[in-house]
Amino acid sequence: MGHARGYSLIEFLVATLIFSLVATAVAQTIILTQRFRGVSANWLRATQLAAERIEAFRAGVLIDEESESGIFRRETALSEIAGHPGLQRVDVTISWRDTEPKRFTLSTLVRR
Description:
Blueprint: H1 9-58, E1 66-69, E2 72-80, E3 87-97, E4 101-111
Antiparallel strand pairs: 1-2, 2-3, 3-4
């Protein structure tokens, strides 16, 4: 009798188990990557909205104290710097909700 060639049932089951574990790990990695990409995109958009508001103020455009843009809420606070006439501090706060509430504040000084 010759030697049997091929795979046994045990070898096939072990290979299937290893493949399913690797496939599950890859799927979880893809899901986490997509979630982090969305979070990163929201932080980028918040930064852009804050910088846009500060640049508008520097250009002399009248600023609403509060506005909304999609899921983002933008608040602007102006304050005079004591002892420095014409110098103002501009704080732009962007807030939104991902899985939990997020808040980002960008501040600068502007001479008027």
